[in-house]
Every structure is written in structure tokens, then in C-alpha cells.
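Aim 2, interim progress: modelling of the flavin mononucleotide-bound target.
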Amino acid sequence: MVNNLVLETIKKRRSTRSYLDKQISQEDLQAILEAGIYAPSAGNQQSWHFTVIQDQAILADINKSAKLTAVNIDNEHISKMAKNEQYNIFHGAPTVIVISGKEDGLMIEADCAAATQNMLLAAESIGLGCCWVDLILFAFSGDKGDQYKKQLGIPEGYKPFHSVTLGYKKVEAINAPSRKQNVVNYIR
Ligand SMILES: Cc1cc2nc3c(=O)[nH]c(=O)nc-3n(C[C@H](O)[C@H](O)[C@H](O)COP(=O)(O)O)c2cc1C
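Predicted structure of the complex, ligand included:
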């Protein structure tokens, strides 16, 4: 069977939802951001912007706002989570990166998703925990959305698409959620 470090990292990565109370190093953060920046992008437009949030008070505020908006969503799973006072959309991670896309870009959703996945794999490859968290979007679509965009320095003309939480794993996830079978067909 073909195997190497990249393939191992892809299969080993799990969404981490429990973090140690310890900040990641600047060196690790830079390596992860660089992995995002090296993602493919439509027409090589590199239509992304990355906002690193390590201010815990701001993260707590965004968490609160996202949940306030999410409570009213017509989705039982999400509204139940939003009602749970203990639930933190960032799972207590000390660092969150918001990935925004330039609104007039060619295929910004795809560009931002590629950068997001690159960062998740980079984090896993250096032993950090991470999770792709789009619940943050409820904060941007709520009453304080424009305020957050300004406060976070998201450039004019850019729209937040995703966020990635980063930190040291409290526990190592062992079992991957099972993967669907029969999702490939061949035309030969
Ligand atoms: C577009 C997207 C949005 C996601 N948003 C969230 C989120 O807001 N909160 C969360 O805990 N996980 C989120 N996830 C992580 C998924 O729940 C997770 O990837 C999936 O359950 C598979 O588990 P694994 O990442 O361990 O393989 C998101 C994943 C994707 C691709």
C-alpha cells in the first residue's frame, strides 16, 4: 500500500474539540499560516485574508454573539448547541484563524476552503489540535457582524468564510468517524 508522511497526516487528522490552556508558539503559527498561503487558488488569485485571534476576551465575545444568533436557526442540532451555556464554538482553543475571501474573486469559496484544509493538515503535521469551525459565521451574520469585521481588521471587500481553531490537544482522538463507502466509480 502506498504510504508516506503526507498520507499519514491526512488520515490521522481529527477535529479536536478539547484544548490545553497553553498558547501555541509563533513559529508554529507562522508555519500553519504559510501552509494556508500555499494553497491552490482559482486563477492564482490568492483571494484570501487570514485574521489571527489570540485575544481571549474577543473570542469569548464572538462565541456569545454566534450562539445568540444560532439560537433562532431552524436546525434542531444547532439551536440546541446554542442554548447550551457550556458550549463554546471554539472549544476553548487559544488561537483562532478567520479565513476571509475577496468578494470579487473568481472562486473564493473554493480558495478559502483549500487554504483552510491546508492549515488543518499543517497543524496536525506538527502535533497541534485543530478544528474547522464555521459556526463563527453566525457572529458575522448577527447584529454585531459589521462591528466584528472592523474590530478584527478584515479588509474592506472581504467576507469571512471559515475559521480554524488551534491549540494543544487535551486528548488524542483515536477513532475517525467512519467514512462512507461506495463513493467512487471508475470509467476506464
Ligand atoms: C465546512 C465545515 C464546517 C465545519 N464547522 C464546524 C463547526 O462549526 N464546529 C465543529 O465543531 N466542527 C465543524 N466542522 C468539523 C466537522 O464536524 C468534522 O470535520 C466532521 O465531523 C468529521 O470529523 P473529522 O474532522 O474528525 O474527520 C466543520 C467541517 C467543515 C468541513
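Residues 15-167 form a domain with the NADH Oxidase fold (CATH 3.40.109.10). The chain has one domain: 15-167.
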